Amino acid sequence: MAERRALITGITGQDGSYLAEFLLGQGYQVFGLARRRSTDSFDNIAHILDQIELITGDLADSSSLFRAMERAQPHEIYNLAAQSFVKSSWELPEMTGDVTGIGVTRLLESMRVVCPSARFYQASSSEMFGLSEECPQNEKTPFHPRSPYAVAKVYGHWSTVNYRESYGLFACCGILFNHESPRRGLEFVTRKVAHAVARIKLGLSDRLPLGNLDARRDWGFAGEYVVAMWRMLQQDEPEDFVIGTGEDYSVRDLVEAAFSYVDLDWQDYVTQDERFMRPAEVPRLLADCTRSQKRLEWNPQVRFQDLVEMMVQAELERLNNSKKPEDATI
Ligand code: NAP
Ligand code: GDD
Question: Which residues contact 274 (CB under 8 A, 6 or more apart)?
Fold first, then answer.
């Protein structure tokens, strides 16, 4: 079979790096859209930089997206780029709307003009369910977004559906629940907790300030979720799918599991800090994956406890190798 080409936006992020690895393993030629940066650190993709081609671009700049489509001539496009940290979206509401929301339309429009027969994946989010009255949530659950980020994701989601219905593009949305890994940004709660626990265990810190401990999330491993993205684009027809583990835990459960992995009692270190509370919280997200299990034959293997241990262990190793010993205060 002739080599297939994939274009990944957000390739420097957590999911982009795992997806690039996976697609390389499947024999794809991988192109990644990456923003111009002032330093040359590409931590998540450093190990595959010589196997991929980076194209400078930004979801806020249409001309760069047209050029990226023309350069890559992709068979598959994965739109993973976003201002993805929910808490920051209250501080950067317009930028989040522009990049995470309208950026999707810019990308779809460039695809429609340059390579309309490509297949398109949009990284939709369980945050769109927000203050949902239904639990668990599936593909038919109504959205009630609770942050500028979630509002922007709803816009991107419906833009993708609209381009599918208006122009017949093969465009799918993966409504993914929280997925984590050692490559997660330091500001997200799983990595923040794992990092702080490792620092405390190694005697580098003695505190962990957190926000709402009661919030519940359906947490899975990012390395498995990128396979579901790819499977969506291998279907005969474009459709949207919910992806998660079907199990939810509280932030308190997360903290307890992480500290107990290193034989410490979380109550000796964790404090509640107003700075990490949100203007509007999403109390509980839990996936009903009946449809994706059946149609995509996708079943995650990494459970919550495995994930927490993987992340704490990775932080211990990182710190023992003296890489990036910083305090998580974001
Ligand atoms: P992430 O680690 O924060 O990565 C975001 C990526 O977007 C980075 O590569 C970032 O580049 C890039 N980006 C940000 N603004 C951009 C812009 N203006 N133009 C071009 N690229 C830009 O996020 P992730 O966890 O991998 O998530 C991937 C996608 O899935 C995101 O759209 C996220 O909203 C969505 N999602 C994530 C989860 C989850 O639990 N992880 C769940 C549901 C949906 P820089 O390196 O230059 O910052
Ligand atoms: N980040 C953070 N820091 N979250 C905290 C803290 C803290 O100190 N304390 C409590 N939390 C709670 C948040 O209030 C939230 O309820 C939960 O922990 C998870 O927060 P995050 O890890 O920041 O993730 P998120 O659920 O807001 O968003 C992530 O998942 C979405 C999918 O549901 C991001 O990856 C989004 O991009 C993604 O769409």
Answer: 211
Q: With helix as H, strand as E and coil as C, how does 59-86 read? A: CCCHHHHHHHHHHHCCCEEEECCCCCCH
Please tell me the predicted confidence (pLDDT) of residue 327: 52
Q: The whole model's pTM is what?
A: 0.97
256 residue type, one letter: E
pLDDT per position as a tens digit, 252-309: 999 999 999 999 999 999 999 999 999 999 999 999 999 999 999 999 999 999 999 9
Task: Read off the pLDDT of residues 209-219 as tens digits, 9 standing for 90 and up.
Answer: 999 999 999 99
Q: Residue 54: is it exposed, middle or buried by C-beta count within 10 angstroms (0-12/13-18/19+)?
A: middle
- Integer Cα distance of 91 and 96 in angstroms: 9
Is the beta carbon of 44 within 6 A of some atom in ligand 1?
Answer: no
Q: Which domains does the chain have, with CATH numbers?
A: 5-179+220-243 (3.40.50.720), 185-218+247-286+303-321 (3.90.25.10)
Ligand number nearest CA of 8 is 1
Q: Which ligand is closest to the CA of 127, given by its number?
A: 2
- Catalytic residue (choose from 17, 110, 124, 127): 127
Q: Are 239 and 210 in contact (CB under 8 A)?
A: no
Q: What is the pLDDT of residues 84-120, one digit of tens each?
A: 999 999 999 999 999 999 999 999 999 999 999 999 9
The DSSP letter of residue 225 is H
Distances (CA, A) of 22 to 13, 26, 223, 272, 288: 14, 6, 9, 39, 25
Ligand 1 and 125: CB distance under 6 A: yes
Calculated CA dihedral for residues 6, 10, 11, 14, nearest 10 degrees: -130
